[in-house]
Amino acid sequence: MSTSIDSLIHIETDPQLKAIAKKVNLQQRITDEEGLILFEKGSLPFVGALANFIREQLHGNTTYFNRNFHIEPTNVCVFSCKFCSYSRLYANKEEGWELSIDQMVDIVKSYDGKPITEVHIVGGVHPKMNVDYFIELMKKIKAHRPTLHVKAFTAVELDYMFRKAKLTTEEGMKRLHEAGLDSLPGGGAEIFAPEIREHICADKVNADGWLSIHEAAHNLGMHSNATMLYGHIEKYEHRIDHMRRLRELQDKTKGFNTFIPLKFRNMDNDMSYVAESSIIEDMRLYAIARIYLDNFPHLKAYWPMLGRENAQLSLAFGVNDIDGTIDDSTKIYSMAGSEEQTPTMTTEELVTLIKQAKRKPVERDTLYNVVNDYSEVNFETAAVDASLN
Fold first, then answer.
1. Angle, CA of 275, 280 and 286, to the nearest 5°
2. 241: helix, coil or strand?
């Protein structure tokens, strides 16, 4: 038993929290009821200590990042999610943007000669950007840069594509995978509870549809991520229900790489009346997610959404991944009021941020294979390869 958990169990007076700490120490799965107890009664120091214990059991001090860039094909969308500050309805598409295939391939080409490992492609659901359109895009990307990992399309985008093309989920996923789709991002999950989903995103794919798309990807040997939009009108039980459904699918397929909590931002959307969660609640959520999702290997803090300092803080609350260099100007969160209005960090900046938190910075690829270990790299020396920047 580690000293930290031993002392935590010793000093904790609440019998329910003490019992949970003992289970965590024994690497036993906590129940839904125990997850709720953590939300209702667990202090930030308590849940943080448990989450950090789990994080260090799994990964030691290693903190991952990758070198990636985003392409957002369009912010024109047929859906009208109340929490979204990014999209423009198709009826008002002149207010948005639409990239052509050639424009997107040119973005890929702009990274020629740079040690980028992943392109992340997500955007609005545009009725003219169908399965065939994106198959052509991926084939052209792979023809130009075969080793670039294509992580693309939320389950919301995929559901619409497949229904429009009259394809089953399995047929659609197979076609896209064969064209060059390597893995799925976790977007579109929001909150699975139907009573919440009905209020915030009633017109897009439901929880069962989201989960079935990810299961189909896993069955093809693809990996994916999972997200949860938190800090709006959901309650603690909705968070647990959401994570339970993810945990159950992960038990079945083992196809999820990482869980990414996404903080609701209230600027310029139809839910601006909802106050944002505090940083204390943010960190509690990260910690409890790390404790509850025992079969997820990684927990990621998406730094453009949280901000750099808060992402750094999350490394003490179970997080072992802070995403990538995001070498572009992705707008999904900046348009909603996130701290990062120009979300770009160089490799040097990411490494410094991780080292300041007394963690070990390791560059990974999308599937968490180690690309470079920067724990001994000093960027102030002349020996640093200029290409790292």
1. 100
2. helix
For residue 146, the SS3 value is coil
Report whether 143 contacts 181 (CB < 8 A). no
* pLDDT tens digit sequence for 325-372: 655 444 444 443 444 445 678 888 889 999 999 999 999 999 999 999
For the chain, give every residue range classified as CATH 3.20.20.70.
Answer: 63-388
Tell me: the pLDDT tens digits for 12-26? 889 999 999 999 999
Do 39 and 236 touch, CB atoms closer than 8 A?
yes
CA angle 300, 83, 289 (to 5 degrees): 30
CB 267 within 8 A of CB 336: yes
Class of the CATH-defined domain 63-388: alpha beta
Q: Are 151 and 185 in contact (CB under 8 A)?
A: yes
CA dihedral 296, 25, 40, 236 (to 10 degrees): 10
